[in-house]
């Protein structure tokens, strides 16, 4: 079960099940850390476990089927899982059911079925909104599939989530920005951003070993994803995941790429640093002791891991003094020369 998201999920992973394609980056058995296929009993057990830790908050959680292409798996197996989850929705013990799937595995028939069993949210693995990038990574679908599926999901009244990756083979920061803009234009309720991690045993791993593919490093990915995170938040789209979920299997099988267990925290700190520099420029301050005013909840974001932002400011000739101001917005920074 995964409860690391702000919106509680009772997550069951369906590794590499139902997907007819071998995407360049994909080894779901390693990403999820298991190859076990959950059944109806696992759904019940997961809800019971969640109830012990969440208590009354269970009613705000969703049973989430992740890891594969849920609407492309064997229909009988999919129905078994939905039948096991549906009673918890109908009795209001949980808020709903969340699934993740491929854009080309959505149609009227499947959406009617999902609605019948109480599915409330559908996440699509778009990954890129550039057809050349999708083709180079053997996704097996096009940008138009994402657009059409998103609109259909909206028409049926589901909450729409879209997932994107940065640093894919054949992509670039500009293409990733274009993907973010195209995703925002579809008005999803939620977004997940996954910087590409090269897993052993994948096609991407062979491209990396041959020198044909240069993956993003963590710092490079942080710079880009900080920009994307702020972009989505400014468009009132919730980024519910930023970076891959930490697991022993991921650490053991990754060969390269942008990974950090606190990746979102790094991105938020990067946003704060950029705003601090902008605040200095606005005030015309180039050196000396400076009071920086931030929201109390953003103090750790401003300071950064291992005080990184204070060190960076010091390298600019600025000695930062952090002040708390409840009137400040999440990423807002105000600079005043220390007197």
Could you give a short account of the major beta sheet?
Answer: 7 strands, parallel
Low-confidence runs (pLDDT<50, min 5 residues)?
Answer: 1-6, 29-33
In the CATH hierarchy, what is the superfamily of the largest domain?
Answer: Aldolase class I
Query: How many helices does DSSP assign?
Result: 13
Q: Over all CA atoms, what is the radius of gyration?
A: 22 Å
- What form results from the Cα inertia axes? globular
Tally of structural domains: 2
**Spatial separation of the terminal alpha carbons:** 52 Å
Computed structural class: alpha/beta
Judging by the overall fold, what is the CATH architecture of the largest domain?
A: Alpha-Beta Barrel
Strands of the largest sheet, in order across it? 1-2-3-4-5-6-8
Mean pLDDT: 92
Name the helicity range: 40-55%
How large a portion of the residues is in β-strands, by DSSP E? 15-25%
How many extended strands?
A: 12
Order of helices and strands: EHHEHEHEHHEHEEHHEHEHEHHEE
The first-level CATH class name of the largest domain: Alpha Beta
Subunit arrangement of the protein:
single chain
CATH topology of the largest domain: TIM Barrel
